[in-house]
Write a structure and sequence with these properties.
2 domains, two-stranded antiparallel sheet, 7 strands, alpha/beta, 7 helices, Oxidized Rhodanese, domain 1
Length: 184
């Protein structure tokens, strides 16, 4: 297991309050970021880190994700391009558990990806159970979901995510000035 220089959420909060310049980069997906992120954090999803090396500021950079594993992967990519990169131990989950404020720009507390995984799993399971207990033709529901997930993986276009994104709880905040800070 690779270890990276790290910082606890308590140390990070102390550094931020003291005015120390620490650039926060959240490498979660944009949906996860919108559902709650550390104030002052910028979003560069993990899959974009390598192509956006020029977007990383100089100086101390603290990398966040949900729990720390994706932040470690981002550090693996950045270690040859940036000198002062830290993984925030426990990520955003530890920040929230410590009771520090977060910024939410969407009404959903589940990321869009998590909603897709839940709905796809639920529909596939439902199709399988109904195929066994009611009518074998229900197996086509599970097959349809599997085909959709395969297509999404190959093309990076997910029809289910596009539909779920239109639901009211997945819409961005309509606040014209700035996002709401929520104390958890």
């Amino acid at each position: 297991m690779k270890t990276h220089p790290s910082i606890t959420v308590e140390q990070l909060q102390t550094n931020l309050k003291s005015g120390e310049v620490v650039h926060l980069i959240d490498v979660r997906s944009s949906g996860e970021f919108a559902s709650g992120h550390v104030p002052q954090a910028a979003n560069i999803p993990l899959e974009q880190v390598e192509s956006r090396l020029q977007d990383f500021p100089s100086g101390k950079v603290a990398i966040l994700c949900q729990s720390g594993s994706r932040a470690g992967m981002a550090c693996d990519i950045l270690k040859h391009h940036h000198e002062n990169v830290l993984v925030v131990e426990g990520g955003t989950a530890a920040w929230i558990s410590a009771g520090y404020p977060v910024i939410k720009t969407t009404g959903s507390t589940w990321s869009l990806e998590r909603q897709v995984r839940f709905l796809a799993g639920f529909l596939a399971l439902t199709g399988a159970v109904l195929a066994v207990t009611v009518n074998p033709l229900w197996a086509y529901l599970s097959m349809f979901i599997g085909a959709g997930l395969t297509f999404a993986g190959l093309t990076n276009i997910c029809g289910m995510a596009l539909l779920l994104a239109k639901l009211p709880w997945n819409k961005p905040s309509t606040c014209a000035s700035r996002p709401i800070e929520v104390k958890r």
